[in-house]
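Q: Could you predict the 3D structure of DUF4880 domain-containing protein?
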Amino acid sequence: MNAPSDQALEQAADWYVLLQSGCASANDQQRWQNWLNASEEHQLAWNYALQVSQRFSSLHGPHAHTSAQAIDSVNRTSARLQRRQLLGALLMAGGSSVLGWATWHFTGIGDAVLAWNADHYTTTGEVREIALEDGTHLWLSSSSAIEVTFDAQQRLIHLLRGEILVQTGHAKEKGHGTSAVEDKTIHPFIVQTPHGQMQAMGTRFSVRLGESQSQLAVFEHAVQITTSSNAERSIVSAGTQTHFNATHIAPPQAADPNRQAWSRQIFIAQRTPLHELITELRRHQSGHISLAPEVADLPVLGSYPLVDTQKTLQMLERVLPIRVTKTLPWWWSVGAL
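A: Sure. Here are the predicted structure tokens for DUF4880 domain-containing protein:
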């Protein structure tokens, strides 16, 4: 089953507002039930709306309990169906569908898994800077996680999820307090993903982990990629970026400044399609942003904050032929005027 369409998600949001308002009649309840039973897409969209609302309610103060009670009331209307859907959502967690992503992103399961398995991690909307013992500085983007292994042979960062920005330091010899001459044979600095490893050559670079590939952007010096199958190896120079999977490294292209701008919690748009900015916003906030296809390719210019969704959408509304509506405190819709 593909991810729910924007239309189905909007319908789910409208039903949620009505059912939570306390004004729904018995006829409304039956119409909602008919809509829910009409298709698997509607069921996926409804679960998505519930998961977003539950996550948002758990993060926000005095109305959280009231909102949770309203959600529980709606859940009881079709308890058996909801239990089956929730089980399906949990089984799909971490998958490529909207429901699997929503389960990870909004229920707190993702944060718990990261905490259990990572040396360092961030939650949704958080950017964190970490100083390592060799002088290296790491920035973790929203909902990211790493394991760190430093020993006499290597400095290894295992990227478990999300994206990191790295400013490498110099390895230190054991038993000495001063920096030694960097020895890449003895002390290589490596970032590893399931798709391969990247060895720094005295540099600043970012790595983003996707489901089927990893992305590397280099801003200073160079980084050597070796695919996990050892099928290909390539050196990526400053000012360029590439993506790769276990067997193949794509040709380099100009580095996207946003692959390090997120560390300052901004997005730099250079006639960037609106959908790319919205996609990045979604990664940094706990609500939902629906984008109509007819405005998805509008070009955007300027710098926009990633940590204040409402402010960014208001800025976009002033300069683009779009209308932003806020159906719920955690649900925005972006459409044409």
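Q: Anything worth pointing out?
A: Residues 129-259 form a domain with the Jelly Rolls fold (CATH 2.60.120.1440).
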